[in-house]
Fold:
Amino acid sequence: MTVEQQQPVTADRTEPTEARPRLGAPGLAGATGALLLLVVVLLGASLWHLTQGTSAIGAGDLVRWLFGDRDGSGPGADAGDVLIGSRVPRLAAGIAVGFALGVAGALFQSLARNALASPDTLAVTGGAYLAVTVVAAFGVTVPIWASGLTAFVGGSIAAFLVLGLAGGAGTATTRLVLAGSAVALALQAGTSTLLILFQEETTSLFAWGSGSLSQLGLRTFQQAAPVVVVCTGAALLLARRLDLLGLGDDSAAVLGVPVRSTRAVGTVLAVLLTAASVTLAGPIGFVGLFAPVIVRLCGRVLPALNRHAVLIPAAGLTGAVVVVAADALIRAMLGADEAISIPTGITTTLMGALVMIVLARRSRDSGPTRQTAAARVRVGSRVRFLVVLAVVVVATVAVTLLSLLAGDTWLKAGDLSLWLRGEAAPLIQFALDERAPRVAAAVLGGAALALSGALVQATCRNPLAEPGILGITGGAGVGAVVVVTGAGVSQAASNGAILVGAVTGALVAFALVYGLAWRHGLDADRLLLIGIGTWYGAAALTTFLLVRSNPWDTPRIYTWMSGTTYGRTFEQVLPVAVVLALALPLAWLVRRELDLLALDEDTPRLVGVRLEAVRLVVLVTAALLAATSVAAVGVVGFVGLVAPHMARALVGGRHARSVPVAILIGAVLLGGADLIGRTVIAPAQVPAGLVVALIGAPYFVYLLARSRA
Structure:
């Protein structure tokens, strides 16, 4: 069985016996009671939310104002201005956003018959955010309704791209989440590039990009609310079709459901709801994932909740409760003045990452007979291997030399010779002293990421895996940012401290993912899903640290988090070189074990391989490689994904041949990306990590499209 045919998590498929109970009088009463309970909980959370704010006006002042103290003479006279001008718009936005995302998530999960489908895992929020950023970056002035249309177009393209690449509705969980996460990573790279290149035009979009309920009035809410109401009503009209669609496409078609039109209309409604949410408050993460999941879990106790006529409004109300409560909670914990800069989406993303990990923990083993695309790649001839190896060696040398010569001032080969002998002119000496560490960081960092990716893909038996998707680079980024924001970028945060922080973060993230994925053995698909959840959680923590740091340092830290070689020194490059030098012999020694690991679970055991011990050593090595590369070049994605796959396509699946080729391809990729980022729009620069993502994203789309069969 291939990766594309693997079994989904237990919660993915809606069981017909549970999903379509008849609503008799007891069921109707229970459903009504559940909805009324959610309304009461939402009212309670809303009242608590109204008492949280930066002003000194509290609950007593609000009560006095509500009961008639509005003439300006009593202590509650100012409460009305605060309530109407600030707190009610924020509360209204929270309710509308949460309700919209809850309904959208319920639709996506039902249409895909997958418990991990959501606006986030389908990259809808990423597509909407990118579309809005493009409009802001290029100074296009549009009304609010047009902003919503822009977000809808971006989200629609992302959703249909992910579903198309993953193989449509009902696809396996790991494939769907991998497709959505990788597309979201590519969209995030595009957004980050625009945020860096157009800082003045997009300065307000960074915090908003994590979801902010701050409002200047009720105007935006009044324009978004009708969209939410109409789309929810339309979704309720599809309730019976969605109930039958849970039986499977063939069964639903036999019962008279127009499957294609139902799926198309449902997807459009879900994207419209997500676009309205993004327009109103930015991309608030993962509410669309765990709000429907909570309702479905409650459906085990109250089966009527599994009917879409009840599930859709219940998911919407649950989403509203989550957003409002999360916003009030963070203000109560940190204080309103401190929490004003913390996007609500950070809290919801952390909660969603936790739910994703819990769902992955409950997944079933996919079976030992799966064979991945990596294992099916033909074994190339020795002559082909030697030719390819020679070509990539020449390419690596060429990229290295060209990177040393290119820049604001183009140098000549003779200048490089003089610099090596210590006889260069001061201007040339200065230029090469600055460029050489950057080139070394890019080339060695790319090689380390490629080797890390090759090890991860062999261990997970999935050619679409990489250190970033396993949460390793995300953990390294969190560790490094903790050091940077805690010690100060320009003063006490030494290179050694950043390295220690990155390595510690990577190892902690790896230990967390590995420990949670272990359940009577290590299932590769469960490892990937938990890793992706950890990656999302690490991204939320990183954003939290950034928005709480010195605002003057935020752009510089954000640029580093996007993957850059700017200002690098040989001191920062040395750890990468050391770990790479130690990992290369290890990779050679375990080359046979890697070949066996890439096949299945049983074959290594049959030939006497200590499977878990080898897997642990290999993954720890991959984590160390990723951590040291993060300390040297920041957080870079796609190199660990693309380089090993290109190597296997060129020389075959045997790791004795594919690993050295992958390492050199990784060096060329990141070295070339750094060269492009430094020279194409000089004197401005684009971080190398973003250039790699923009180059790697189309190739990843090609991989997914090719592997659909």
In short: The domain at 373-707 is CATH 1.10.3470.10 (ABC transporter involved in vitamin B12 uptake, BtuC). The radius of gyration is 26 Å. The CA atoms of residues 590 and 614 lie 8 Å apart.
